[in-house]
């Protein structure tokens, strides 16, 4: 079992196994395989040790992955909250950031429903 960027990669095709690393998706995995000269359809257990070393060197050198990427993303969000911009305020309040509606839906960001007293519908005047 190969270990790259602190992740034990499963015995799947190299392109698929690389996507288990946080920060590497399908497109990045294809580019990494092409740049390092590793066949992307080969299984991870069949890859030679020098090819694994080439993958490690390429990923560590050119890509932000795992801890560094998570830290960078957290710092970007913290910066938005510190300067008090609209997106930062939405992050701080735990509301959707990208313009989604919140009157209905948005349950994942807002959490479990909380009943508010006195929010009954006013009777219609006839």
Q: What characteristics describe this protein?
A:
126 residues, mainly alpha, Helicase, Ruva Protein, domain 3, two-stranded antiparallel sheet, 6 helices, 3% strand
Give a count of the beta strands, DSSP E runs of length 2 or more: 2
CATH class of the largest domain: Mainly Alpha
Query: Which secondary-structure class do the elements indicate?
Result: mainly alpha
- Largest sheet properties: 2 strands, antiparallel
Q: Summarize this, please?
A:
The chain has helices at 14-18, 26-36, 49-62, 66-83, 86-93, 107-110, and strands spanning 3-4, 7-8.
Please provide a written account of the structure.
By secondary structure, this protein is mainly α. The protein folds into two domains: 3-63, Helicase, Ruva Protein, domain 3; 67-110, Irregular (30s ribosomal protein s13, domain 2), CATH 4.10.910.10. The protein has six helices and two strands. It has a two-stranded antiparallel sheet. A hairpin with a 2-residue loop joins strand 1 (3-4) and strand 2 (7-8). It is elongated and about 80 Å long. It starts with a strand and ends in a 16-residue tail after the last helix. The relative contact order is 0.11. The mean pLDDT is 90.
């Amino acid at each position: 079992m190969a270990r790259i960027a602190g992740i034990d990669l499963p015995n799947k095709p190299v392109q698929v196994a690389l996507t288990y690393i946080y920060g590497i998706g399908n497109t990045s995995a294809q580019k990494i395989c092409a740049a390092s000269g590793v066949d992307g359809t080969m299984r991870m257990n069949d890859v030679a040790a020098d090819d694994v070393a080439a993958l490690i060197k390429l990923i560590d050198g050119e890509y932000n992955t795992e801890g560094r990427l998570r830290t960078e993303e957290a710092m970007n969000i913290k910066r938005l909250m510190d300067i008090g911009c609209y997106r930062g305020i939405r992050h701080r309040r735990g509301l959707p950031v990208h313009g989604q509606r919140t009157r209905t839906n948005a349950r994942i960001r807002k959490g479990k429903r909380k009943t508010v007293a006195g929010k009954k519908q006013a009777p219609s005047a006839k």
